[in-house]
Amino acid sequence: MKKRGFVVILILSILSITLPIIGLYIGGNAKSITFGDVTNFILKGTTGSEFKDFLLRDNRLPPILGAIVVGLTLSGAGLMLQTLFRNLLASPYTTGITSGVLLVASLVIFVNSISKILDVVVDNEISKILLAGWIGGLFAMIMLLIIAYRVEEANGVIIVALLLGYFFGGIRDYLIANAEEVRIQQYWEFIVGSLTRIHLNDILPMAACTFIFIIGVIFLLKPMNALLFGEKYAKSFGLNIKKTRILILFFASFITGAIVPFTGLIAFIGLVAPYLARPLIKTSDHRYLMPTSMLLGVVLMLLCHILSFKYFVPLHYIYGIDRPASPLPIGAVLDILGGLLVIYLVYKGEKKIRII
Question: Which of 97, 206, 239, 242 has the most CB atoms less than 10 A away?
Answer without folding.
Answer: 97
